[in-house]
Amino acid sequence: MVLLWAIALVAFIVIEFCTVGLASVWFALGSLCALLSALLGAPPWLQVLWFALISVITLAATRPLVKKYINTRTTATNADRVIGERAVVKERIDELSGTGTVFADGKIWTARTANGATLEPGEIVRVLEIRGVRLIVEPDTAPVAE
Predict the structure, then answer these.
(1) 28 vs 90: CA distance, rounded Å
(2) To the nearest whole percent, how much of the chain has pLDDT over 70?
């Protein structure tokens, strides 16, 4: 059992070093405790219990804190600037046929409507959100400034 826990400990440490976020540090700690209990002559069931107990406790105690402080920043892309902006329908937006493009921010984007409405070329729309590479739009009811 000592060899098993030593291999598990090394494997969890290697996995931890190979990942960007914390993924297996809790299981490495559990493996370490199980390894120590095996070295002290504890029966296998107690070693497994130590592994499970320490892994779960450390995971439950630290994971929420880790998620709060690691990778909290989202990087805005230039594409985000089209949200809330007006666009012009270039190709008929039709949910049934899966077609539709709009011209926004100097580029042609594939587009769908938020409510499944069909929009014709030349109509002015407002960009609500971006889903993948597709703009979600709705007809713009604001008056056009002359």
Answers:
(1) 56
(2) 86
Alpha carbon distances (Å) from 146 to 104, 127, 143:
19, 21, 9
- In the block, tokens 């990778």 appear at 71
Q: Are 110 and 101 in contact (CB under 8 A)?
A: yes
Higher per-residue confidence, 74 vs 103: 103
Residue indicated by tokens 């892994």: 55
> Does 70 score more than 70 pLDDT?
no
- Look up residue 58 and give its two tokens: 């450390």
* Rounded Cα–Cα distance for residues 34 and 38 (Å): 6
Average pLDDT over residues 28-46: 94
E strands, the chain, where? 86-94, 99-104, 107-113, 124-131, 134-139
Based on C-alpha coordinates, what's the Rg of the chain?
27
Say if CB 130 and CB 79 are below 8 A apart. yes
How many degrees, rounded to 5, is the angle at CA 132 between CA 87 and CA 108? 35
* pLDDT confidence bin for 98, thresholds 50/70/90: confident
> How many CB atoms within 10 Å of residue 105?
13
